[in-house]
Automatic annotation (TrEMBL):
Species the sequence originates in: Pontibacter diazotrophicus
GO molecular function annotation: oxidoreductase activity
Coiled-coil annotated spans: none
Cleavable signal peptide: none
PANTHER family referenced in this protein's UniProt entry, alphabetically: THIOREDOXIN REDUCTASE 1-RELATED-RELATED
Source organism phylogeny: Bacteria, Pseudomonadati, Bacteroidota, Cytophagia, Cytophagales
Protein name: YpdA family putative bacillithiol disulfide reductase
Keywords: Flavoprotein, Oxidoreductase
Keyword Zinc listed: no
InterPro entries: Bdr, FAD/NAD-bd_sf, Ferredoxin-NADP_redctase_2
């Protein structure tokens, strides 16, 4: 290996990927963060008006203070914070550069991206789960009127909108589009609303109770057409006029890269990747996982606040290994 070999290559420039870069920097290790999209790409895809469950201090990385107007920051404040971290700490980040191939090369790994090639002794995979939406798998889902990502409510002014889902993103989309003049119908598979922020849930319950937002519980969307949709309810099929469908059915990590490079996944529907909980090292030597990807399909297990410690664990393990080699 020549001097151009990196100590660590980090895949993913979300908060946890940045945290890994900060820890590598503190340890005096050479590193590079590669990101297929923009900085904190998952956060960028959140709704414009989204407010975090967590307080700002729980979203901090690298011990760098996160100051926000309210205790629970919003999307814009979070993106500003992580940009400031990247700039103030001069993090080595390459954006809009997707990883295409990775293979072992002696005691290191060669990584080919859309813009170049790198060799690294260690690889940290810190990708999020916003890349692949959970599909409805019904006729008409391919129509342009169907959206799996919700950004701004103004777009749906005076439109007939169906929101599919029972949790946070569904509640926000329903309330915000209704307040901006949309006619909103919710379709909820469960008999009641799900996991929703405590300051949002009563608002939505009251809108449903008063009839401002129509909600079909224990129901499912069965077909989407250009100007209408079919909803299967406990009382039978209902057809309503419709302009847009917001399928807020959640997302899942892209496991194809893990499978391609040989990281073992559980064979059940949870798809848990194999890794050591102390070092975060996978079954592949010197390949580590950090952040939400560690939870497989259980995307609500790991958050910024409880997975930022992954960065510390991983870099400590790598640094100890480096010290042993030098001894």
């Amino acid at each position: 290996m020549d001097t151009s070999t990196l100590d660590i290559l980090i895949i993913g420039a979300g908060p946890i990927g940045l945290a890994c870069g900060l820890e590598a920097q503190k340890a005096g290790l050479s590193y590079l963060i590669i990101e297929k999209g923009t900085l904190v790409n998952s956060l960028y895809n959140y709704p414009l008006n989204m407010t975090f469950f967590s307080t700002s201090e729980k979203l901090e990385i690298g011990g760098i203070p996160f100051v926000s107007v309210h205790p629970k920051p919003n999307r814009m404040e979070a993106m500003e914070y992580y940009r400031r971290v990247a700039d103030s700490q001069n993090l080595n980040v390459h954006l809009f550069e997707g990883v295409e191939h990775m293979e072992s090369e002696g005691e290191a790994y060669r990584i080919r991206t859309s813009k170049g090639e790198y060799v690294a002794r260690h690889v940290i995979i810190a990708v999020g789960f916003y890349g692949i939406p959970n599909m409805l798998n019904i006729p008409g889902e391919e129509l342009p009127k169907v959206r799996h990502y919700y950004l701004d409510p103004h777009y749906y002014y005076r439109q007939k909108v169906v929101v599919v889902g029972a949790n946070n993103s569904s509640a926000d989309a329903a309330l915000e589009t209704w307040r901006k003049g949309a006619e909103v119908t919710m379709v909820v598979r469960q008999p009641e609303l799900g996991r929703i922020k405590y300051w949002t849930k009563p608002d939505l319950e009251n809108r449903i109770k008063e009839g401002s937002i129509k909600c079909y519980f224990s129901s499912s969307l069965t077909e989407i057409r250009e100007r209408e949709v079919d909803i299967q309810t406990p009382e039978g099929k209902v057809t309503i006029e419709n302009d847009f469908v917001l399928a807020m059915t959640g997302y899942q990590p892209d496991f194809s890269f893990l499978q391609k490079i040989g990281v073992k996944l559980s064979e059940d529907e949870k798809r848990y990747p194999q890794y050591d909980t102390e070092s975060m090292e996978t079954n592949l030597p010197n390949v580590y996982l950090a952040g939400v990807i560690c939870g497989g399909m259980d995307t609500h297990v790991w958050f910024i606040e409880n997975s930022r410690e992954h960065a510390i664990k991983i870099v400590k393990h790598i640094a100890r290994e480096q010290d042993v080699e030098k001894a």
